[in-house]
Write a structure and sequence with these properties.
Layout: H1 3-7, H2 17-24, H3 26-29, E1 32-36, E2 40-46, E3 55-59, E4 64-71, E5 90-97, E6 108-112, E7 115-121
Antiparallel strand pairs: 1-2, 2-7, 3-4, 4-5, 6-7
Pfam family, one: HSP20
Protein name: SHSP domain-containing protein
Keywords: Stress response
Length: 138
Amino acid sequence: MSLISNMLGDNNEPFDPFLSLVNKCPVLNTPTDWKETPEAHVFTADLPGLKKDEVKVEVDEGRVLQISGERKADGESDGDTWHRVERCRGRFMRRFKLPENAKTDEVKASMENGVLVVKIPKQEVKKPEKKVIEIQGN
């Protein structure tokens, strides 16, 4: 195997170790599911090892849900010798444009065992009424 073939990833594209880490890192990539039930939009994000005070959930006036936070490095002490560091650290942010039927003033969030659940109730959106236009002329 040549050096060039070792540097190529899937589809013969260049392999970038940093992007590979980001794609595999649950905190930096923040995998999030979004489902719609009859009553609400429900977002579930895996944030292993984080506590609720390390995560921020916001909805801006543009109807965008933003989930963000940071996993910080473990505290170092004098005399510690690190042999390997593989757990991801760093800031993350995910943004989702909410549909018109989301009640953005009634958002609720909870976190348990590193899983964040954000529930946004739905409201009925009035559909525009059809207006019949009279055609004039002969």
